[in-house]
Write a structure and sequence with these properties.
two-stranded parallel ribbon, 32% helix, elongated
């Protein structure tokens, strides 16, 4: 089992919908215009937020962000066959780690009825 984060388009750029939460931890990022800018922002966020899981970086055309509707954050569970047994709601209101945890447990137990499953 692997846990991965994917850094997509900046949700709270200083030249857009900035966030007091970002300011509080010293993250002040403009919306990325190049992949190199996005990569640098992801590295800065990893350091400031003390990420302990691998963080992948979406391409500048936001291919993954659009495919998974990942703005501003979202939880997915992808099984070994590439199927999505759990798709969380859009964050921050739909960000429910406990639901993901329950879905992981049910998947590991072999129960086909996973909470939040795409049908």
């Amino acid at each position: 089992m692997a846990f991965l984060g994917i850094y997509v388009r900046e949700a709270h750029p200083i030249d857009g919908a900035s966030s007091a939460g970002n300011d509080k931890v010293g993250i002040r990022i403009r919306q990325h215009r190049t992949f190199e800018e996005r990569l640098a922002a992801a590295q800065a966020c990893c350091g400031a937020l003390h990420f302990t899981m691998p963080l992948l970086v979406d391409t500048i055309d936001d291919r993954v962000g659009h495919a998974y509707s990942g703005m501003p954050d979202r939880l997915y569970l992808v099984d070994r066959d590439g199927k999505v047994p759990y798709q969380g709601g859009r964050g921050p209101m739909g960000f429910r780690p406990a639901e993901l945890e329950q879905s992981i447990i049910l998947l590991l137990l072999g129960n086909g009825d996973v909470a939040g499953a795409q049908r």
